[in-house]
Amino acid sequence: MKTLMDNCCPACTHTPTAPCSSYIACRTAGPLCHSNDECKTKIQNHLQRILAPSGGTEQQILTCGGTGCQSAGSAQLAAALQEALAETGMTAAVTVKITGCHGFCEQGPIVHIKPADIFYTRVKPTDARAIVQHLADGKILERLVYRDSTGRPYPRMAEIPFYAGQTMLLLSRCGHIDPEQIADYVATGGYRSLTRVLQHMTPEQVIEEISLSGLRGRGGAGFPTGKKWQAARRAAGDIKYIICNADEGDPGAFMDRSLLEGDPHAVLEGMLIAGFATGSRQGYIYCRAEYPLAIKRLRIAVHQARQWGLLGSNILNSGFSFDIELKEGAGAFVCGEGTALQASIEGLRGMPRVKPPRSTEKGLWDKPTVLNNVETLANVPLIIQLGAAAYRQLGTAQSPGTKIFALSGALANPGLVEVPMGKTLRQIIFDIGGGIRDGKSFKAVQLGGPSGGCLTGQHLDLPVDFDSLSSLGATIGSGGMVVMAEDTCMVDVARFFLAFTQQESCGKCTPCREGTMRMLEILERICRGEAEPADLADLERLCRVVKSTSLCGLGQACANPVLSTLQYFRAEYMAHIVEKRCPAGVCSSLVRYSIDEKMCRGCGLCLKSCPVNAVKGERKLPHVIDQSRCVKCGTCLNSCKFKAVVKA
């Protein structure tokens, strides 16, 4: 098995005594040696082919291979493109590459042609021949070009507002390299930060650089990463562990999944540097089994890194040894909490424990343990590459760097975005996300998943960082951002998120186990129109008790969606309780369908579509709905062509 310490050219006798970054780049370029000018030229050519910048000559057809696009048939599309190239004899001049997520998920499957920067959306396998033919003719296939709500075409990726408003650093490789080829990662600068660390830095210097960068944990709590590493470094004991928390479980969150699918080696490199800094020789990646593509690509990445001598013993002849093992989680949301995750790795039931001691003192198998999430670790090579001072130029003073958000909900352009900390909600939701679809108005945004809170239009100009949001009852969390339009019931939103956390409670502590159940029962009564004003006082009291007495973050934060909606949308709660009415028309028990006799033409469509025969009437005469039989399914509303059915 050849490693980076082997001669890169069979005919060359030169073996470097200390591997350098150019040697790593040389190794990816094939049987070359970095000790001569010819080798350096070939390295640059290889790098150019990987990146395919505007000055490149080799054409690449990049097809999105993220989970979303794969579910829409991107694998079949890639095969169809390859077949079309073969039919036209263009396989030598054009390469089809399956990449990670491009981020613009609403428009998938996506095809990006480089170096021309031609960007196609919602591509089908049947479009392959037309794409190849237009590529051969030097033309753009206009019907596949992205168009905004006004119909304006954007043939180039760089011009699309969704991308133009972003600052892609962590996502810079996703959508541009093949995540299953380590050569692509190395040729774009991968593992050079590790090389620099092993050759030129001490563990203390690495920790100092991470501390000076101001990097805070991207898993939600925002704890200073350097401080956590320093605590583990100082902890007694020869055995220490690094854990990558990839147990992303928030509804509407897919940031970590996309990073692992699109750039897995960045996470491995971050773990290697963390291991060197803290004195660890073993790392674990805890990834939920519901992410099969991420797990597949992680396994490939770990295997390739071992083949290349970047995992295992005496890495790059530095004396540093480190290996990584992948653990699959069974899908328990509570295992996203550090101590519950560690219990799961140990083969125990995933339940949190009382702290202190902290994991950096007594974690996995009672050994000092550093636990960082996927995005935090992916930042580490970037910080070493840029330097702490340059990294701090991004974001805000207290929240440096960028943050990846998963935009979902009522947006025109949901997807994966990366922006500097401090961008406002308005910039993210409207400039990048395209605003609310179908011409509806903005109502609220829920940040931080089940642990977060809901904010309103008055908060749209708020800078998004750790401290600004916490003062308003919301959190960045792991990065989920669910946008809601005018027809959303905020009581139902609170009920949905609380139902999720109640179901995911491990049951170890009474406040969370019993309190969430009682809170959910009250919310369900409110949604059914069965609650009284006293129930609202009980709900708020329960929220405070559960929040202050629960054992772990799940219970401590589960009340946030309820408390924030009570704070900003109390009138909706009162409408449900006092008026027995759902203003948004969502809660079915409080909805009433009727027919406006002035608008009704007696066409009979609602009568025919009603599943319980609640609609009565003669043809060409106004119809009526028998309220005693109506099950409030809304079928009559959807079937009426004359807007005669009224929902109230």
Structure description:
The protein is of the alpha/beta class and 648 residues long. The chain has five domains: 59-164, Glutaredoxin, CATH 3.40.30.10; 182-391, 3-Layer(aba) Sandwich (Rossmann fold); 402-488, Ubiquitin-like (UB roll), CATH 3.10.20.600; 491-577, NADH-ubiquinone oxidoreductase 51kDa subunit, iron-sulphur binding domain (de novo design (two linked rop proteins)), CATH 1.20.1440; 592-647, Alpha-Beta Plaits. The chain is 39% helix and 13% strand. The chain has a five-stranded mixed beta sheet with strand order 12-11-15-13-14, sandwiched between helices. A hairpin with a 3-residue loop joins strand 3 and strand 4 (118-120). The longest helix has 19 residues, at 510-528. It is globular. Residues 1-36 and 46-56 have low confidence and may be disordered. This is NADH dehydrogenase (Quinone). Belongs to the complex I 51 kDa subunit family. GO terms for molecular function: 4 iron, 4 sulfur cluster binding; FMN binding; metal ion binding; NADH dehydrogenase (ubiquinone) activity; oxidoreductase activity. Its EC number is 1.6.99.5. Residues 591-620, 621-648 form the 4Fe-4S ferredoxin-type domain.
Structural class: alpha/beta
Tell me roughly what share of residues is in helical segments.
Answer: 25-40%
The total count of helices amounts to 26
Strand content: 5-15%
Count structural domains.
5
CATH class of the largest domain reads: Alpha Beta
List strands and helices in order, with pairings:
Blueprint: H1 21-28, H2 37-51, E1 59-64, H3 67-71, H4 74-87, E2 94-99, E3 111-114, E4 118-120, H5 128-137, E5 146-147, E6 153-154, H6 161-164, H7 182-187, H8 192-200, H9 203-213, H10 225-234, E7 241-246, H11 255-262, H12 264-278, E8 282-288, H13 292-307, E9 323-329, H14 338-345, E10 369-373, H15 374-386, H16 388-391, E11 402-409, E12 415-420, H17 425-432, E13 442-447, E14 453-455, H18 466-470, E15 480-485, H19 490-504, H20 510-528, H21 533-549, H22 553-557, H23 560-568, H24 570-577, E16 593-595, H25 605-609, E17 615-616, E18 624-625, H26 635-639, E19 645-647
Parallel strand pairs: 1-2, 7-8, 7-10, 8-9, 11-15
Antiparallel strand pairs: 1-3, 3-4, 5-6, 11-12, 13-14, 13-15, 16-19, 17-18
Helix pairs in contact: 1-2, 4-5, 8-12, 8-15, 9-10, 9-12, 11-13, 12-15, 19-20, 19-23, 20-21
